């Protein structure tokens, strides 16, 4: 029996409703640019969240990164164009930049790629450490300036930097360096008098004070990473009256700025609600 036009319209309407509800219950596809404690905290908060389908991107600098409770990918995207391609291919809905305060290039690429694709971008920006009474900081613009600031007389120097930054101190070979890094640096271009300690934070005040005392450190070189995970070395330097050569933060382009993984989760849930997820 031929069906009348009215039931046909009803069934079409139902079809539209089914299609719509299928689309609106799709979780938000999220790219997290990581490599930080905040990115790992966000991954823990989002694991099992039915409204968000996250992937954590790591630069691939460490051979054995800490295990994560969500999907991960590793390695550069291939500049802004590569990131734009990735966002489109993976049908990403939103991006959270949770990279380190000194990872300025990745952040600049995220801003450009999100502008090109029209995707919402939120950036977790960790507050910088501030000097307090007893701190003896000398601010310098970069690692080359830090090497110069050590001066001509040989000193015992604690380098709390990434392994890629150690080569700058080859320009000041008169000093004895102790560098703490997650993975061993390549031997090319390193300062000649260098002891490498491999360790992954967080570190506590007692251990940091012991390390600086045992190694008879006279001056520390540090980035202003902010956050609690690596602050104990700054407290230890203060307690021991040691000067700290502090490398300034770079200009880091950002989207909508927040400070914590919890705020990022709230932003994501707002974004998901806005889209009917
Ligand atoms: P960067 O100078 O801003 O980035 C250099 C290039 O590395 C980027 O253009 C990108 O390559 C790739 N990259 C960086 N972060 C990435 C990520 N999360 N996923 C995929 N590719 C990424 O960064 P960086 O200072 O070398 O830092 C690298 C990573 O280590 C970052 O994820 C950062 O959060 C973490 N980290 C850095 C520091 C630091 O002091 N800089 C400290 C602790 C942790 P393409 O252009 O090919 O996409």
Report on the structure:
It contains 8 helices and 12 strands. The chain is of the alpha/beta class. The chain has a 6-stranded parallel β-sheet, sandwiched between helices. Strands 6-11-10-7-8-9 form a 6-stranded parallel β-sheet. It starts with a helix and ends with a helix. It binds NADP nicotinamide-adenine-dinucleotide phosphate.
Describe, in short, the structure shown.
With 277 residues, the protein is an alpha/beta fold. It folds into 2 domains: 10-127 and 252-274, 3-Layer(aba) Sandwich (Rossmann fold), CATH 3.40.50.720; 137-247, Rossmann fold (3-Layer(aba) Sandwich), CATH 3.40.50.
Domain tally? 2
Q: What percentage of the residues does DSSP assign to strands (E)?
A: 15-25%
- Can you say what the CATH homologous superfamily of the largest domain is? NAD(P)-binding Rossmann-like Domain
Specify Rg, calculated over alpha carbons: 24 Å
Indicate the CATH class of the largest domain: Alpha Beta
Q: How many helices in DSSP terms? A: 8
What are the distinct ligands in this entry?
Answer: NADP nicotinamide-adenine-dinucleotide phosphate
- CATH topology grouping of the largest domain: Rossmann fold
Strand order of the largest sheet: 3-2-1-4-5-12
């Amino acid at each position: 029996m031929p069906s009348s036009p009215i039931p046909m319209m009803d069934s079409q309407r139902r079809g539209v409703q089914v299609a719509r509800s299928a689309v609106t219950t799709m979780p938000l596809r999220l790219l997290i640019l990581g490599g930080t404690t905040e990115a790992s905290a966000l991954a823990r908060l989002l694991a099992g969240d039915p409204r968000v389908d996250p992937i954590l991107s790591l630069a691939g600098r460490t051979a054995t990164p800490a295990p994560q409770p969500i999907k991960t990918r590793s390695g550069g995207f291939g500049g802004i164009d590569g990131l734009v391609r990735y966002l489109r291919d993976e049908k990403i809905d939103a991006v959270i930049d949770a990279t380190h305060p000194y990872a300025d290039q990745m952040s600049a690429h995220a801003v450009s790629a999100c502008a090109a694709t029209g995707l919402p971008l939120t950036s977790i920006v960790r507050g910088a450490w501030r000097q307090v009474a007893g701190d003896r900081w000398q601010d310098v613009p970069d690692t080359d300036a830090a090497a110069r600031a050590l001066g001509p007389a040989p000193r015992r120097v604690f380098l709390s930097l990434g392994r890629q930054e150690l080569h700058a101190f080859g320009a000041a070979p008169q000093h004895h360096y102790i560098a703490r890094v997650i993975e061993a640096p390549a031997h090319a271009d390193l300062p000649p008098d260098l002891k490498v300690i491999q360790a992954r934070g967080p570190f506590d005040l007692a251990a940091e004070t012991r390390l600086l005392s045992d190694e008879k450190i006279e001056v520390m070189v540090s980035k202003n990473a902010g956050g609690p995970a690596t602050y104990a070395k700054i407290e230890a330097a203060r307690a021991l009256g040691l000067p700290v050569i502090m490398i300034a933060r770079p200009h880091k382009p950002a989207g909508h700025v927040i400070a914590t993984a919890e705020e990022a989760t709230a932003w994501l849930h707002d974004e998901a609600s806005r889209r009917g997820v």
